[in-house]
Amino acid sequence: MIRKVIAGKELLRAAGTVTKKLAAWLAEKGYVKAEEAEEAAERGGAAARDLPKAEELASLLHEFAENQERGEEDDEIEDHFMLTRVEPGRLWLEGMLDGRELGPLEVPEEISRRCKVGWSISGVVGRAGRRWRLVEAWNVYPG
Fold first, then answer.
1. Residue 81, class by beta-carbon neighbours within 10 Å (0-12 exposed, 13-18 middle, 19+ buried)?
2. Which of 1, 74, 89, 106 has its CA 20 to 30 A from that of 30?
3. Which DSSP letter does residue 23 get?
């Protein structure tokens, strides 16, 4: 939904709630098994919590990347990156294309506090010397 729909926090939260209600209705009508409906309801509940948080994090990452001085990068990688490790003010990412772990990337602690291992970030990471940094951030996807 994050990639395909421009939506505010309320709509993102509502999408998860509607998914939970739809799953219950489908089970009630016999269109899906109770176990499948329960799994869908759990995923809907997680989406209602996580989608707004992911959207907020994406905005913070985008703003952070935009406000950094752009340096001469030795290497830039555009990818979807999985968050593999989070410490206060530092992130480690794994590229989904090549599986290489990059990091640590220094970020404000407010950003690192909102990051969750297993979530992914689409964007560009650059390396200058031995240091990696966030160059562009587009979306964040809950795990």
1. buried
2. 1
3. H
CA distance 4 to 12: 12
Is it the case that residue 130 has pLDDT exceeding 60? yes
Please check the confidence at residue 20 and state whether its pLDDT lies above 90: no
pTM recorded for the entire structure: 0.78
**Enclosing H/E stretch for 42:** helix 34-67
Compute the CA torsion angle 62, 65, 68, 70 (nearest 10 deg). -130
Choose among 10, 9, 38, 11: nearest CA to 23. Answer: 38
3-state secondary structure 83-102: EEEEECCEEEEEECCCCCEE
